[in-house]
Amino acid sequence: FCIRLFAVIRYESVIHEFDPYFNYRTTRYMTKEGFYSFHDWFDEMAWYPLGRIIGGTIYPGLMVTSSLLYNTLRALHVTVDIRNICVFLAPLFSSLTTIATFLLTSEVMDTRAGLLAAGMIAIVPGYISRSVAGSYDNEGIAIFCMIFTFYLWVKSVKTGSVIWASACSLAYFYMVSSWGGYVFLINIIPIHVLILILTGRFSHRIYVAYSALYTLGTILSMQISFVGFLPVISSEHMGALGVFGICQLVAFYDFLKNKMLPETFNRFLRLVGLLFGLLFGVALSMLALS
Does the keyword DNA-binding apply (predicted)? Predict the structure, then answer.
């Protein structure tokens, strides 16, 4: 936290660069007018002279986070300017990122590795440059969201609990609302599941974790106006949908294998293979005729 306060200590508490200042303007508007007015706001000063519809063209997670902190502090009778919250938000979340990194690495390995990973991410130059005081941009909170989502995903896979998977979905929703880089999450996690399937390590725990995450996470992500129906029509999300379908097929295969006699199961597989072969042949014929 402290190593990110250099600019504030040497100069003053100010917002740096153009995008952070635009984010500050929108946050200030939200704190004064409320979320719904912010969502419907047409900003005539942005993209001049065309103007800009704010609610449908930005990821609102950064502004909502700052507004919630501001209103919470005011409810506790702590007087603070919204500008100072915006200035110090990124260093605050960088501290939370070190905790999330410790939890993730400790879950994968042990606490010693977790402490080492937390110490390393605290001083990574690339991350420091995006989380210094005054750099009020999406990456300031999005990196925490990403690592925390990975931690909850590991917990979901280990436990097979719908509760952990739902918590992972909420963290993913927070990530979607904060930064367009959420597509890294919705592609890395399906790749992990696909590798587990190909290596024969697929289990009921993984099925529950990924099915709950994909279903709930997709529904939640579609509530962000800037995202909309992209999770079901964009090529960036088709990999996750494909892995979701593969999970259902593999789970159905395991279910039938456990419920049927070996002879009946083999006969059923041959019948299904023949049916798919016929459908594939009909599809090729229709394509050739067209």
Answer: no
E strand or H helix at 42? strand 42-43
Amino acid at 126: G
DSSP 14: -
Beta carbons within 8 Å of 39's beta carbon, 6+ residues apart:
54, 55, 60, 225
Q: How far apart are CA 178 and CA 64, in angstroms?
A: 9
91-123 residue pLDDT tens: 889 999 999 999 999 998 889 999 999 989 888
d(C-alpha 144, C-alpha 274), whole Å:
49
Own/partner pairs, 97-103, CB within 8 angstroms, 24+ separation: 97/121, 97/127, 97/131, 97/143, 97/144, 97/147, 98/122, 100/144, 100/147, 100/148, 100/151, 101/147, 103/148, 103/151
The radius of gyration of the chain's CA atoms, rounded to the nearest angstrom, is: 24
- Look at residues 216, 222, 223, 215 and name the one whose alpha carbon lies nearest to residue 244: 215
First to last CA, the chain: 64
- The Cα–Cα gap between 228 and 41 comes to 18
Where are the chain's structural domains? Answer: 1-137, 148-259
Q: What is the pLDDT of residues 176-192, one digit of tens each?
A: 999 888 999 999 999 99
Output the DSSP codes for 94-145.
Answer: HHHHHHHHHHHHHHHS-HHHHHHHHHHHHT-HHHHHTSSTT--STHHHHHHH
